[in-house]
Specification:
Layout: H1 9-18, E1 26-29, E2 37-43, E3 46-52, H2 61-73, E4 91-93, E5 96-102, H3 114-130, H4 144-155, H5 160-177, H6 180-183, E6 187-190, E7 199-202, E8 209-213, E9 220-223, H7 224-235, H8 246-259, H9 264-290, H10 303-315
Antiparallel strand pairs: 1-2, 2-3, 3-5, 4-5, 6-9, 7-8
Helix pairs in contact: 3-7, 3-8, 4-5, 4-9, 5-9, 7-9, 9-10
This protein binds adenosine-5'-triphosphate (ATP) and L-homoserine.
Family: Belongs to the pseudomonas-type ThrB family.
InterPro entries: Aminoglycoside_PTrfase, Homoserine_kinase_II, Kinase-like_dom_sf, Pseudomonas-type_ThrB
Keywords: Amino-acid biosynthesis, ATP-binding, Kinase, Nucleotide-binding, Threonine biosynthesis, Transferase
Length: about 325
């Protein structure tokens, strides 16, 4: 169930008219997604995704939508938000903030192979280059301050070996966060949640193209290799063991570095940032598990998966 706000054809048409688009020819609720209400909308001008934001306030949205517009304007496969006559990207529908973005073709890939991760690695590197002149700034809201607080809560839910892993990793990451070597790494606006379900591929099997990446609502300012670590930890992981798959990781990194070669310090710190990324999603999943926002709407994702990813990253660090 992903439609929390019912949008009528008349409401959709009124918004489309404000955005210089013809009336809707089809308005189809999107079943997947848990944060927001999404509809696929067809007009004479093209295909769109209408999002009604259920949690984020209007004043929080410009950073995310401007980042998407910036990346799209730089030729990245990111859906461009449709502006109104005054250039605004945040609209209102049924009293809630809303946005209309281009609909990408294709479908997500659950079990990516070397071909898929290479395409993604190249696009990720291009995104990191393209934000050099992105003027807005927002910290990563799932960064060190959030981690410390979430880590405190999580201590109460864990015992034994997981509790010890968490305690040690929080201490390790705190030391890392204070290190001048980390502060000196290249950084900028990053996606920070580019999992397999936030990218679509289109085309014949074996020859798919990456049609685009979306869901920028955890984006913020962070190190580029943190973003790379988030991606490695999802796209290149053996889902049963939590270990990094060397062939996929090498393919992703090679494609990334063909566009944006990593500095020596980035290569050295990538294993530590993989640990930071695994910890971030272990903590957010623990929080969703133990403090569900709305038990009826949210099926929490398995926290133990990221405990395994973290344990592997600690015990068997992978160096590019
Ligand atoms: N620009 C787009 N083009 C094509 N499909 C899209 C686009 N944006 C979203 N979708 C589709 O809508 C679904 C829900 O989108 P999204 O993942 O942003 O949902 P959400 O509820 O906002 O977030 P979450 O994934 O965190 O639950 C996606 O799985 C995808 O199928
Ligand atoms: N990608 C996240 C959910 C959205 O932040 C996870 O898999 O835990």
């Amino acid at each position: 169930m992903a439609v929390y706000t019912q949008v009528s054809p008349d409401q959709a048409d009124a918004l489309l008219a404000r955005l210089g688009l013809g009336p809707q020819q089809a308005l189809v609720p999107v079943a997947s997604g848990i944060e927001n209400t999404n509809y696929f909308v067809s007009t004479a001008e093209g295909e769109w995704v209408l999002t009604v934001f259920e949690r984020l306030a209007a004043e929080q949205l410009p950073y995310y939508l401007r980042l998407m517009a910036h990346l799209a304007a730089h030729g990245l496969p990111v859906p461009a938000p449709r502006p109104d006559a005054s250039g605004g990207l945040v609209h209102t529908l049924a009293g809630k903030p809303a946005a209309l973005v281009e609909r990408l073709p294709g479908a997500p890939v659950d079990a990516p192979d070397i071909h898929h991760v290479a395409l993604l690695g190249s696009v990720l590197a291009r995104m990191h280059l393209a934000v050099a002149d992105f003027a807005m700034h927002q910290p990563n809201l799932r960064g060190p301050a959030w981690r410390a607080e979430a880590g405190q809560h999580a201590q109460a839910w864990l015992q034994g070996a997981p509790a010890e892993l968490l305690r040690a990793e929080l201490a390790f990451q705190q030391t890392l966060a204070d290190a001048p070597a980390l502060a000196a790494l290249p950084q900028g606006a990053v996606h920070a949640d580019l999992f397999r379900d936030n990218a679509l591929f289109d085309g014949a099997p074996g020859q798919e193209q990456l049609s685009g990446v979306f869901d920028f609502y955890f984006a913020g300012h962070d190190h580029f290799i943190y973003d790379l670590a988030v991606v490695l930890n999802d796209w290149c992981i053996d889902l049963d063991s939590g270990a990094l798959d060397d062939a996929r990781a090498q393919a992703l990194l090679q494609a990334y570095q063909a566009v944006r070669p990593l500095q020596g310090a980035e290569q050295r710190l990538l294993p530590a940032l993989r640990r930071a990324a695994a910890l971030r999603f272990w903590l957010s999943r623990l929080d969703d598990w133990h403090r569900p926002r709305d038990a009826q709407l949210l099926t929490p994702k398995d926290p133990a998966h990221f405990e395994r990813v973290l344990r592997h990253a600690v015990d068997q660090p992978w160096h590019p």
